[in-house]
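[Automated response] Your request has been received and processed.

Submitted sequence:
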Amino acid sequence: MIKSILLVDTNTDTLEYLKNHLDAPNIHIRIAKNGEEALDILSNSNIDLLVTALEMPHPNGVDLLVEMDSRGLSMPVIFLSKLYREDKGVRERLHTLGPYMLLDKPIFMNRLYEAIEVALQFKINWEERRASTRYPIRLDMQLSFNTPIGVGETIKTKTIDLSMTGVCFEKPVCEVCTGYEKGGVHKDCVLYPYAIAKIYSNPLDIYIKISESETLQLKGKVVHTLIEGEQYNKNSREFIGIRFVDVSHDKREELKMLLKRYSR
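Generated structure:
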């Protein structure tokens, strides 16, 4: 069975990003660059789920919902918004129309994956979620990056597990942290500029020490931060998941040999 999803946003970069990351064998993606285009597609096609920006020129997301209702078009809707929390008028208008799923921008893809599966009651094997075999390998590791204010930062830690696609490590919660985003990366986190869900984010420089004379250098982006236990506080341990990016053939072969060595 193939499900059809319509993506609506006036930002073409966002549309392209979502289309690429939501592509799957059992999903058909349609895109619309504004509300009028979306209404035309909805009126003439079988769409199972609408994923739309809330903030758009007329018709915006709420206008789109009202017009769909007047045309007798009914389907699950997921709104993507960057102003919902701040704009009381938008919140009140949306609440009068009924309960709808709403995710904040910037978009954390793992949350969107889950929301789509809940809305469609349908399991989807996105390539982004296919996990390669992870090995519990403890190696010294260092991350180098610039903070949002331009100050160079280095994190020294140990790997928890390692795979062909990424690495996980743990560290104490940063003293400068002001919040926590479960399953994503909080916008105030010093690692947020390197989040994979943030369009045009920068890669981190990663150095994994294999031996006294061997260091594997890679680049990666932060997929998620998770804390130990249920309550976030300054004494929490934080678990960071990173996906490797721009891995050359030679680096991939080095990584493959490393995993083979430690997985015996």
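Summary generated for your ticket: The first helix runs from residue 12 to 22. The chain has two domains: 3-129, 140-262.
If you did not submit this request, please reply to this message.
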